[in-house]
Automatic annotation (TrEMBL):
GO molecular function per UniProt: ATP binding; DNA binding; zinc ion binding
Family: Belongs to the NrdR family.
Organism annotation: Isoptericola dokdonensis DS-3
Residue ranges of coiled coil: none
Cofactor binding notes: Binds 1 zinc ion.
Name recorded for this polypeptide: Transcriptional repressor NrdR
Domain ATP-cone: 46-136
Cofactor(s) it depends on: Zn(2+)
Zinc finger motifs (unnamed), residue ranges: 3-34
Domain of life: Bacteria
Gene: nrdR
Amino acid sequence: MHCPFCRHADSRVVDSRTSDDGSSIRRRRQCPSCGRRFTTVETASLSVVKRSGATEPFSRDKVVSGVRKACQGRPVSSDDLALLAQKVEETLRGAGSAEIDAYEIGLAILGPLRELDEVAYLRFASVYQAFDSLEDFEAAITSLRSERSERSERPTAGPDEGAGS
């Protein structure tokens, strides 16, 4: 790491800390030449491999803009979209690969979008999964309905249950 003050080619790590969200490492460094200290922040890069074979850095903004179109006219806030993009990035980083296929990003969007807004999910899925008939929509709606009924049939634990009384 070059010193930003004297451009010396080496530096010594004095302190390392993980960021609050665990996505980066903050390092305090000291230059052995001029003795000045500086901070660096290290993050793991995540690249997207597009259909054309080109790669580009992952962008939460691109996830948000793609999903925003599906959410047009729906009761979904900008904060909801930002949280969805964060969940998608966490899922992709959790896969442990530095390069992610663009198709995988779409798959990672579908789950959180379904939880956020079912209509927006259907809109996104219809384009992403190339629905080309009414049967495709019917199958997706049937799947959503069955998941909804399964959720409503699950027993929920009361506040005193499982507390080890």
